[in-house]
Amino acid sequence: MTSSPSPTDPVAFRKAARLLRPLMALHRYRVEGLEHVPRTGGCLLVAHHTLATYDGFMLGIAIFDETGRMARGLGDDRIFLLPPLARRAWRVGLVPASPDAGERMLREGEIVGVAPGGMWESLRPSSERYQIRWEGRRGFCRLALRAQVPMMLAACPRADELFTVYASRLTDQAYGRLHLPIPIARGLGLTPLPRPLELVHYIAPLLVPPPLVPAHEDEQVSELHARATAVMQELLSRR
After folding, report:
1. Tens-place pLDDT, residues 174-216
2. pLDDT digit string (tens) for 164-180?
3. Which pTM value belongs to this model?
Protein backbone atom coordinates (compact mmCIF):
# COMPACT_ATOMS: atom_id res chain seq x y z
CA MET A 1 0.00 0.00 0.00
CA THR A 2 1.61 3.25 -1.07
CA SER A 3 -0.91 5.88 -0.03
CA SER A 4 0.43 9.00 1.60
CA PRO A 5 -0.04 9.17 5.37
CA SER A 6 -3.43 10.72 6.17
CA PRO A 7 -4.16 12.98 9.14
CA THR A 8 -5.01 11.26 12.40
CA ASP A 9 -8.42 11.69 13.98
CA PRO A 10 -8.11 12.90 17.61
CA VAL A 11 -11.70 11.83 18.32
CA ALA A 12 -11.02 8.29 17.08
CA PHE A 13 -7.78 8.24 19.03
CA ARG A 14 -9.53 9.23 22.26
CA LYS A 15 -12.18 6.56 21.72
CA ALA A 16 -9.51 3.91 21.19
CA ALA A 17 -7.64 5.17 24.25
CA ARG A 18 -10.74 4.74 26.41
CA LEU A 19 -10.75 1.04 25.58
CA LEU A 20 -7.21 0.68 26.92
CA ARG A 21 -7.48 2.79 30.07
CA PRO A 22 -8.93 -0.10 32.14
CA LEU A 23 -5.84 -2.13 31.17
CA MET A 24 -3.63 0.79 32.16
CA ALA A 25 -5.34 0.83 35.55
CA LEU A 26 -5.04 -2.95 35.91
CA HIS A 27 -1.30 -2.74 35.28
CA ARG A 28 -0.86 0.44 37.36
CA TYR A 29 0.84 1.68 34.23
CA ARG A 30 3.20 4.64 34.31
CA VAL A 31 6.05 6.12 32.30
CA GLU A 32 9.41 7.36 33.51
CA GLY A 33 11.18 9.80 31.21
CA LEU A 34 8.26 11.67 29.65
CA GLU A 35 10.34 14.81 29.98
CA HIS A 36 12.43 13.47 27.07
CA VAL A 37 9.48 13.58 24.65
CA PRO A 38 10.05 16.58 22.35
CA ARG A 39 7.13 18.98 22.33
CA THR A 40 7.69 19.89 18.69
CA GLY A 41 9.54 18.53 15.67
CA GLY A 42 10.14 15.13 14.16
CA CYS A 43 11.25 12.27 16.38
CA LEU A 44 11.62 8.52 15.84
CA LEU A 45 10.14 6.59 18.78
CA VAL A 46 11.89 3.21 18.95
CA ALA A 47 10.39 0.45 21.12
CA HIS A 48 11.03 -3.21 21.73
CA HIS A 49 8.17 -5.48 20.57
CA THR A 50 6.48 -7.68 23.15
CA LEU A 51 3.99 -10.47 22.63
CA ALA A 52 1.32 -8.41 24.42
CA THR A 53 1.79 -5.51 21.96
CA TYR A 54 -0.71 -3.29 23.79
CA ASP A 55 2.04 -1.86 25.99
CA GLY A 56 3.16 0.14 22.95
CA PHE A 57 -0.30 1.63 22.53
CA MET A 58 -0.38 2.54 26.22
CA LEU A 59 2.86 4.44 25.71
CA GLY A 60 1.23 6.36 22.86
CA ILE A 61 -1.66 7.29 25.16
CA ALA A 62 0.73 8.47 27.89
CA ILE A 63 2.60 10.65 25.39
CA PHE A 64 -0.69 12.11 24.18
CA ASP A 65 -1.86 12.79 27.75
CA GLU A 66 1.42 14.52 28.59
CA THR A 67 2.10 16.49 25.42
CA GLY A 68 -1.02 16.40 23.23
CA ARG A 69 1.05 14.82 20.46
CA MET A 70 -0.23 11.74 18.63
CA ALA A 71 2.56 9.36 17.70
CA ARG A 72 2.22 7.75 14.26
CA GLY A 73 3.06 4.06 14.18
CA LEU A 74 4.54 2.16 11.23
CA GLY A 75 2.41 -0.99 11.27
CA ASP A 76 2.56 -4.44 9.68
CA ASP A 77 1.01 -4.51 6.19
CA ARG A 78 -1.40 -7.26 7.31
CA ILE A 79 -3.25 -4.72 9.44
CA PHE A 80 -4.28 -2.92 6.26
CA LEU A 81 -5.56 -5.90 4.28
CA LEU A 82 -9.11 -5.66 5.66
CA PRO A 83 -10.74 -2.31 4.78
CA PRO A 84 -12.68 -1.86 8.08
CA LEU A 85 -9.56 -2.55 10.15
CA ALA A 86 -7.43 -0.43 7.84
CA ARG A 87 -9.74 2.57 8.24
CA ARG A 88 -9.56 2.36 12.01
CA ALA A 89 -5.79 1.95 11.91
CA TRP A 90 -5.35 5.06 9.75
CA ARG A 91 -7.61 7.13 12.02
CA VAL A 92 -5.66 6.32 15.20
CA GLY A 93 -2.28 7.02 13.60
CA LEU A 94 -1.05 3.73 12.14
CA VAL A 95 0.31 3.68 8.60
CA PRO A 96 1.76 0.83 6.49
CA ALA A 97 5.43 0.53 7.23
CA SER A 98 7.72 1.93 4.55
CA PRO A 99 10.88 4.05 4.65
CA ASP A 100 9.30 6.68 2.39
CA ALA A 101 6.23 7.12 4.59
CA GLY A 102 8.35 7.25 7.72
CA GLU A 103 10.76 9.81 6.34
CA ARG A 104 7.95 11.97 5.00
CA MET A 105 6.20 12.10 8.37
CA LEU A 106 9.42 12.77 10.24
CA ARG A 107 10.27 15.68 7.95
CA GLU A 108 6.75 17.01 8.54
CA GLY A 109 7.48 17.12 12.27
CA GLU A 110 5.64 13.98 13.44
CA ILE A 111 6.56 11.52 16.17
CA VAL A 112 6.87 8.21 14.32
CA GLY A 113 6.90 4.94 16.24
CA VAL A 114 8.72 1.80 15.13
CA ALA A 115 9.52 -1.58 16.67
CA PRO A 116 12.64 -2.69 14.77
CA GLY A 117 12.36 -6.33 15.83
CA GLY A 118 8.81 -6.52 14.53
CA MET A 119 6.74 -9.67 14.77
CA TRP A 120 9.84 -11.86 15.03
CA GLU A 121 10.90 -10.08 18.20
CA SER A 122 7.41 -10.41 19.71
CA LEU A 123 7.63 -14.21 19.35
CA ARG A 124 10.73 -14.53 21.53
CA PRO A 125 10.47 -17.43 24.01
CA SER A 126 10.66 -16.53 27.69
CA SER A 127 14.25 -17.78 27.73
CA GLU A 128 14.99 -14.59 25.74
CA ARG A 129 13.15 -12.19 28.04
CA TYR A 130 14.60 -8.67 28.25
CA GLN A 131 16.50 -9.16 24.99
CA ILE A 132 16.00 -7.77 21.52
CA ARG A 133 16.10 -9.27 18.06
CA TRP A 134 17.58 -6.43 16.06
CA GLU A 135 20.22 -8.36 14.14
CA GLY A 136 20.10 -7.10 10.59
CA ARG A 137 17.32 -4.63 11.50
CA ARG A 138 19.05 -1.33 10.72
CA GLY A 139 16.44 0.46 8.65
CA PHE A 140 15.26 2.52 11.60
CA CYS A 141 18.75 3.95 12.08
CA ARG A 142 19.01 4.80 8.39
CA LEU A 143 15.60 6.49 8.65
CA ALA A 144 16.65 8.69 11.58
CA LEU A 145 19.97 9.51 9.92
CA ARG A 146 18.42 10.52 6.59
CA ALA A 147 15.59 12.52 8.19
CA GLN A 148 18.07 14.03 10.69
CA VAL A 149 15.76 13.54 13.66
CA PRO A 150 16.53 12.24 17.16
CA MET A 151 15.64 8.74 18.27
CA MET A 152 13.65 8.28 21.46
CA LEU A 153 14.15 4.76 22.78
CA ALA A 154 11.53 3.26 25.10
CA ALA A 155 11.22 -0.12 26.80
CA CYS A 156 8.75 -1.82 29.13
CA PRO A 157 10.77 -4.72 30.55
CA ARG A 158 8.05 -6.39 32.60
CA ALA A 159 5.79 -6.62 29.56
CA ASP A 160 7.97 -9.63 28.74
CA GLU A 161 6.53 -11.27 31.88
CA LEU A 162 2.85 -10.89 30.97
CA PHE A 163 3.01 -14.24 29.19
CA THR A 164 5.16 -17.33 29.36
CA VAL A 165 6.23 -18.00 25.78
CA TYR A 166 7.58 -21.42 24.86
CA ALA A 167 10.22 -22.15 22.26
CA SER A 168 8.47 -24.00 19.46
CA ARG A 169 9.39 -25.35 16.04
CA LEU A 170 5.82 -24.58 14.94
CA THR A 171 6.29 -20.91 15.84
CA ASP A 172 9.61 -20.70 14.04
CA GLN A 173 8.38 -22.46 10.89
CA ALA A 174 5.12 -20.51 10.68
CA TYR A 175 7.01 -17.24 10.87
CA GLY A 176 9.88 -18.33 8.63
CA ARG A 177 7.70 -19.76 5.85
CA LEU A 178 4.48 -17.78 6.07
CA HIS A 179 5.36 -14.78 8.23
CA LEU A 180 2.49 -15.73 10.56
CA PRO A 181 2.56 -15.27 14.36
CA ILE A 182 1.66 -18.58 16.05
CA PRO A 183 3.07 -18.36 19.58
CA ILE A 184 2.77 -21.15 22.12
CA ALA A 185 2.13 -19.18 25.29
CA ARG A 186 0.10 -18.86 28.46
CA GLY A 187 -0.66 -15.95 30.76
CA LEU A 188 -2.41 -15.94 34.12
CA GLY A 189 -2.46 -19.55 35.29
CA LEU A 190 -3.23 -21.67 32.24
CA THR A 191 -5.31 -18.95 30.59
CA PRO A 192 -4.49 -16.61 27.68
CA LEU A 193 -5.16 -13.61 29.94
CA PRO A 194 -2.16 -11.36 30.66
CA ARG A 195 -0.82 -11.40 34.19
CA PRO A 196 -1.88 -8.30 36.19
CA LEU A 197 1.68 -7.05 36.66
CA GLU A 198 2.71 -3.46 37.26
CA LEU A 199 4.09 -2.07 34.01
CA VAL A 200 6.53 0.81 33.68
CA HIS A 201 7.81 2.23 30.41
CA TYR A 202 11.25 3.82 30.54
CA ILE A 203 12.20 6.49 28.00
CA ALA A 204 15.89 7.27 27.49
CA PRO A 205 17.32 10.72 26.70
CA LEU A 206 17.18 11.45 22.99
CA LEU A 207 19.78 9.79 20.80
CA VAL A 208 20.81 12.35 18.18
CA PRO A 209 22.30 11.07 14.92
CA PRO A 210 25.37 12.77 13.46
CA PRO A 211 25.09 14.88 10.31
CA LEU A 212 24.66 12.56 7.34
CA VAL A 213 27.76 11.98 5.25
CA PRO A 214 26.47 10.12 2.17
CA ALA A 215 29.84 8.57 1.36
CA HIS A 216 29.95 7.01 4.86
CA GLU A 217 26.24 6.36 5.39
CA ASP A 218 26.58 2.61 5.98
CA GLU A 219 29.27 3.17 8.61
CA GLN A 220 27.16 5.82 10.30
CA VAL A 221 24.16 3.50 10.32
CA SER A 222 26.24 0.73 11.92
CA GLU A 223 27.53 3.05 14.61
CA LEU A 224 24.06 4.42 15.34
CA HIS A 225 22.67 0.88 15.51
CA ALA A 226 25.31 -0.10 18.05
CA ARG A 227 24.48 2.95 20.19
CA ALA A 228 20.74 2.30 19.98
CA THR A 229 21.17 -1.38 20.84
CA ALA A 230 23.23 -0.53 23.92
CA VAL A 231 20.65 2.01 25.11
CA MET A 232 17.77 -0.43 24.61
CA GLN A 233 19.54 -3.22 26.48
CA GLU A 234 20.17 -0.83 29.37
CA LEU A 235 16.49 0.12 29.48
CA LEU A 236 15.50 -3.56 29.49
CA SER A 237 17.71 -4.15 32.52
CA ARG A 238 15.52 -1.80 34.60
CA ARG A 239 13.20 -4.27 36.27
Report:
1. 999 988 899 999 999 999 999 999 999 999 999 999 999 999 9
2. 999 999 999 999 998 88
3. 0.90
The radius of gyration of the chain's CA atoms, rounded to the nearest angstrom, is 17
Phi first, then psi, for residue 114 (nearest 5°) are -140, 150
